[in-house]
Design brief:
Elements: H1 2-19, E1 29-32, E2 35-38, E3 49-52, E4 56-59, E5 69-75, E6 84-87, E7 90-91, E8 95-96, E9 106-112, E10 119-126, E11 133-138, H2 145-168, H3 171-194, H4 197-243, E12 249-252, E13 266-268, H5 269-288
Antiparallel strand pairs: 1-4, 2-3, 4-5, 5-9, 6-7, 6-10, 8-9, 10-11, 12-13
Helix pairs in contact: 1-5, 2-4, 2-5, 3-4
Length: about 290
């Protein structure tokens, strides 16, 4: 199983490198504004404006890097109006159908994320009367850099976990106990099938001490979890904060996987991290012989 997962991760990384930064994203994030205050500077409108409206605007993604195309949809605008948009203080060049319909709806309009520093921005869409906004974040690192960063972080954390396991767990004792339990269960099954009551009574006396010893050996695995859980959780939170949030898109997948891979092959931080961790943890367990 882990071999297929490893192949999937490696193929995804290779495909991410050449042109994934230009792939479309489609995580729906809607930020409506019934009362919005705009202080954006444009060449066609005043430096500050304030409007109260029921207009709402949605972006196809809430966090992406420069050069990625983001779709705009909205409702509650004035009918049959051309819209303009500001990305922070940067005037956007819109493409597609950027005229509202007779019901005040907007769809088929898009813009390319400008080359501005990472951080949080507001995207203001205006029909001249209504000025709803949506929030948008440009992460510090974008695809393919984020793909490799998350992958290498998962490799590092998996390696640390395996090294702690080798240090804390008595692997030889664990293997001996596993062999002993296997032999005991085999002997018990044979005695049960033979209906050998005397043998079963002897085995019953051996079972409790053996189970107690097995529990003692297994406790060392819990120690590994206790030692590594908080640091690993801390690294994950720091990584999420650094990249722009827990739901930021960090990878694109060439293979559609239900739940893990979203529309257009996007993979959020959580799922890519989990897939990478599972894959490399399994590989390192085999390589370092930390499994019994």
């Amino acid at each position: 199983m882990f071999v297929y997962a490893a192949a999937f991760v490696l193929v995804s990384i290779m495909l991410a490198l050449p042109a994934l930064a230009q792939a479309p994203a489609s995580i729906s994030t809607t930020v409506g504004s019934s009362q919005s205050t705009s202080s954006q500077s444009t060449s066609s409108q005043s430096t500050s404006s304030q409007s109260t409206s029921v207009a709402k605007v949605s972006l196809s993604a809430s966090s992406e890097g420069a050069g990625v195309t983001i779709g705009i949809t909205g409702s509650g605008f004035a009918a049959d109006r051309n819209v303009t948009a500001m990305f922070g203080t940067t005037q956007l060049s819109l493409s597609g159908t950027c005229t509202t319909n007779s019901a005040g709806g907007l769809s088929g309009c898009s813009f390319v994320v400008p080359n501005v520093p990472h951080g949080s921005y507001t995207v203001l869409v205006s029909d001249g009367t209504n000025n709803p906004i949506a929030n948008f974040t440009i992460p510090v690192i974008t695809i393919p850099g984020s793909t490799l960063l998350v992958t290498m972080t998962s490799v590092g954390l998996s390696l640390v976990t395996q090294l702690v396991t080798r240090r804390v767990v008595n692997l030889d004792a664990e293997r001996r106990m596993k062999a002993e339990v296997s032999a005991f269960n085999k002997e018990k099954r044979a005695a049960t099938l033979a209906k050998d009551k005397a043998k079963l009574e002897k085995l019953k006396k051996r079972e409790l001490p053996m189970r107690q010893e097995q529990a003692k050996v297994s406790t060392s695995r819990l120690k590994v979890t206790a030692i590594t859980f908080v640091p690993l959780l801390g690294v994950y939170y720091l990584m999420a904060s650094f990249l722009g949030g827990f739901n930021v898109v960090v990878a694109y997948s060439p293979i559609p996987i239900p739940l893990l891979v979203g529309t257009n092959g996007i993979m959020a931080l959580f799922w890519w991290y989990m897939l990478s961790s599972f894959t490399f943890s399994s590989l390192l367990t085999k390589l370092l012989h930390t499994t019994t």
